Amino acid sequence: MVCYPAMKLSPKIKKIIIRQSGMHNVWISGLVLSSILFTANYLIFQNLIQEPGESTCMQHHQGNVMTTSPPQTGSDLNLNDLEAFRKREHIRSLVLQNFKQFPQSLRLKLFDVIYEQSLALGIDPYLTLSIIATESSFRRASISYNGAYGLMQIKPVTASAIACKLGIPWQGEETLFDPVLNVTLGLNYLADLKDQFGDMDQALIAYNYGPEFVITRIKNEEKLPVKYIEKIKRNLEQWV
Fold first, then answer.
1. Helices H, strands E: what count in the chain?
2. DSSP readout, 22-85?
3. How many angstroms separate the CA atoms of 229 and 134, rounded?
4. pLDDT value of residue 28
5. Nearest to 182 by CA among 5, 2, 20
6. What's the total number of domains in the chain?
7. Degrees (nearest 5) of the Cα angle 100, 105, 108?
8. Would the CA dihedral through 153, 156, 162, 167 be positive or negative?
9. Are residues 73 and 94 in the same domain?
């Protein structure tokens, strides 16, 4: 197979993919990782919303160590940062809620990919969740009648080409049953389509029907079907 130059992935996402793709690597303990994320998010959130002169104090149960943050002033409050934090935590809660069939550690890895990889590719993470809900109803083993696999319903021939470009080891159709790899491949495919058509609606139609279908319709000045986009938007409306 001929590969194009490798696409750029963030170091964090790359580490997650490397751990996932081998299928034999040791997972980080979900409880430990969850505890670390919860503590960090709690401290960040407290720092953002506290009143002037108020300090944040949190007791860790292991060792009874008290950690206090410095007092904050009203000028330190950045509304954009607060809104971004709230969005991030909302998406995190949606991932944890909708993927209950997965272990906690896998759900947290999946959240990292859905949130960070989406933003890195210029895709709204809410849209990513809506596509997953539309395509597979959050079922990792979903297989369509036309041979698309996994959470984002990608065909093996398409997925293998994207995997080659990203430098992800391709282990056949089984690769697409890995939630983290499936979403990574699906997001990069959607980003490619967005670059190709210059319009997210057309990219989504091409994701569902195939790019040749959209190219032919546009060339013949025919209307593009909107049923798929309407379904995605209905799923999107329940979260935003």
1. 11, 2
2. TS-SPPPPHHHHHHHHHHHHHHHHHHHHPPTT---EEEETTTTEEEEPPP--GGG--HHHHHHH
3. 10
4. 36
5. 20
6. 2
7. 75
8. positive
9. no
